[in-house]
Design goal:
Number of helices: 18
CATH architecture of the largest domain: 3-Layer(aba) Sandwich
Distance between the termini: 60 Å
CATH superfamily of the largest domain: P-loop containing nucleotide triphosphate hydrolases
Length: 454
């Protein structure tokens, strides 16, 4: 796209100067012929516009398919192990080839129709040039009659004028010669504009207040929400999470566990109902102030390109080396970090060779360093072996002391010591209580738990 825009801009600037100066010289030679040139010149623009309009839809389709092809390629490359393990190499190739064939057809049509721009523009300019020559001959023949109008002309002046007329037509020919680049650039720019024109997330709350320093009780009151207008994920959901308590949210896949967290962090706002933090509606607070109260440890680890120290201190770059190391010790990560070639200064990345368990340990150390008021755990120990899970469970228990902790649980064995367990079913909290209380009820939680451990 940049090459196309650069070529167009360069040609346009040169063309403007050429048009202005040659037109001035032509008016100095013969105003009547110059006026004829000025009147006929838009014909080439009209022809070029007509061809460009017809080819634009093909360039737009070409840009869209190019994006799909790049996405298909990236997806297969990133997940090549899964592709091989599932034995779907041929299906992946067929999918790629199908998009590639469509791209080839659309690109061929775009190039074909766009290639007509320059020849048709040159044809029109040559016709205009011939008309000027004929008009010049007519002026020479009827020169006595046109002399009083100041349109006198000699053969030498006509020859000079025709030379300037060729130079005047050159910018139109040059611009039409970059029509393909122009159409390509416009199609790409249109896709970028579509992305940039998407409404951004506003940080401000409706009353511009910050989240309370003491989060107190988190309360979900009559929450209703769906990602699509016709969809409802949460229906009249009510839940209280008391300050300093550890509350687990359990339920079948798609029941709304992750959606609840997304609403709490204001990635979305509910259709109806309120989420209260210490008695204040979070929709009145800025998103950044709400999110700053939480530390998150997710099932999918976040490892950035940098040193181990930089990864742990990612959310607090001003943390001292001692603070970083203390957080790693509390997360049971210090011992394996010191075994790395350069210890805390070892460069790492998502694909650096660390095990999933080691990545998770670094993620947990990062949250420990943040020392947040509230913690959200999404099956944080799922990637760890039995020994590491025991160590991290102890570290999280220490971190959770006097801090509100919300746990999204899939393996119920990890949350049986929670202060409360909320069971979601079809978008509602259908049961809440401790593990023992819910087991005695023999309801939804009992069925889920016994299905996992019997």
């Amino acid at each position: 796209m940049m090459a196309g825009l650069t070529a167009i801009f360069k040609t346009l600037i040169e063309g403007i100067f050429t048009l202005v100066f040659t037109l001035a010289f032509m008016y100095g030679l013969n105003w009547l012929l110059a006026t004829i040139v000025l009147i006929l010149s838009p014909l080439s623009f009209l022809i070029a516009r007509s061809v460009a309009t017809h080819s634009r839809k093909y360039f737009k389709s070409q840009a869209q398919l190019a994006g799909e092809l790049a996405g298909c390629t990236l997806e297969r490359v990133r997940n090549y192990r899964a592709v091989r393990a599932l034995g779907i190499q041929s299906e992946s190739y067929d999918s790629f080839a199908a998009i590639d064939r469509k791209l080839y057809v659309q690109g061929q049509k775009a190039q074909f129709f766009s290639s007509w721009t320059n020849p048709t523009t040159r044809l029109v300019n040559n016709i205009v040039y011939a008309c000027i020559g004929i008009a010049g001959v007519v002026i020479l023949v009827f020169q006595p009659s046109l002399a009083p109008l100041g349109a006198a002309l000699t053969i030498g002046r006509l020859n000079t004028f025709l030379s300037f007329a060729l130079k005047f037509a050159k910018p139109f020919n040059d611009i039409s010669s970059v029509a393909t680049e122009s159409q390509n650039a416009q199609a790409s720019l249109h896709r970028i504009d579509d992305l940039l024109s998407q409404p951004g997330e506003s940080d401000a709350g409706s009353q511009q207040i910050a989240a309370p320093l003491d989060t107190g009780t988190i309360e979900f009151k009559h929450i209703e929400f769906g990602y699509e207008p016709e969809q409802t994920v949460l229906k009249d959901l009510n839940l209280q999470v008391f300050a300093g308590h550890r509350v687990a949210i359990v339920g079948s896949t798609g029941c709304g566990k992750t959606t609840l967290i997304n609403l709490l962090l204001r990635f979305y706002d509910p259709r109806h109902g309120q989420i209260l933090m210490n008695g204040q509606d979070v929709q009145n607070m800025s998103r950044s102030s709400v999110r700053s109260r939480f530390g998150m440890v997710l099932q999918d680890t976040w490892i950035f390109s940098g040193t181990v120290r930089e990864n742990i201190a990612y959310a607090d770059p001003d943390a001292s080396d001692q603070e970083v190391e203390n957080a790693a010790k509390r997360a049971q990560a210090d011992s394996f970090i010191r075994r790395l070639p350069q210890g805390y200064s070892t460069p790492i990345s998502q694909s650096s060779g660390l095990s999933e368990g080691e990545k998770q340990l670094i993620s947990i150390a990062r949250v420990l360093l943040m020392n947040p008021q509230m913690i959200i755990l999404d099956e944080a120990t799922s990637s760890l072996d039995a020994v590491s899970e025991k160590n991290i469970t102890a570290a999280i228990a220490e971190l959770s002391t006097n801090r509100t902790t919300i746990v999204i649980a899939h393996r119920l064995q990890t949350i049986i010591d929670s202060d409360a367990i909320a069971v979601l079913d079809q978008g509602r909290v259908v049961e809440i209580g401790t593990h023992d209380e819910l087991m005695r009820k023999r309801g939804v939680y009992y069925r889920i738990y016994t299905s996992q451990y019997q």
